[in-house]
Sequence to fold (209 residues):
Amino acid sequence: VIKVGSSSLTYDTGMVNIRQIEKLCKILSDIKNSGRQVILVTSGAIPVGASKLGLAAKPTTMPEKQAAAAAGQCELMYIYDKHFLEYHHKVAQILLTRDIIEKDELRTHAVNTFETLLKLGAIPIVNENDTIAVDEIRFGDNDTLSAIVASLTKADGLILLSDIDGLFEENPKDNPDAKIIPLVTEIDDHIRSIAGGAGSNRGTGGMAT
Ligand code: GLU
Fold:
């Protein structure tokens, strides 16, 4: 399972980083050709849709976020479909909400869909179903969503592609000499305080996840 964040897929303008997406699709296609099964968890629907609809890069109201996600999601899928097709790979869209964790029936449907798509050689492309993801059923961020997808599908690994390499003692954007912390065995107040918030005006995860 590979998760890519909004700040890696888009520019500050909210428009797509074409080179980055092309590179991502090429590399994932190659990994797939090597015989591995690939699931992509993508963010980016909100910033891409916001720029398409002429909204602020990170809309603040829920209806605006949902509208932006709806507009951006189809543009993202169009781009992924186009690039993966160049390498003869087929993609399929899966939009999830958090209730797949609690409701056995929903979870079974989700697992069946993943398994069947993988068996058929498709690359499932996953995002949160932002249109109906109100607080109670929100994953909150796609780092969490990708961890749940990895566990549902019994993946061998989960890779988070982000604009930050991990947890640093200080924010490396403020101090380029900040040291990375390679292993965290316990999350305490100190760890929380150095992790900070989202690293960009578009992403949500940053060092905290
Ligand atoms: N579902 C959101 C989007 O596609 C992303 C949420 C996140 O990145 O954590 O814009």
Notes: The pocket of glutamic acid is lined by residues 5-6, 43-46, 69, 127-128, 130, 141-142, 204-205 (CB under 6 Å). Strands lie at 2-4, 40-42, 91-96, 123-128, 159-161. DSSP finds eight helices and five strands in the chain.
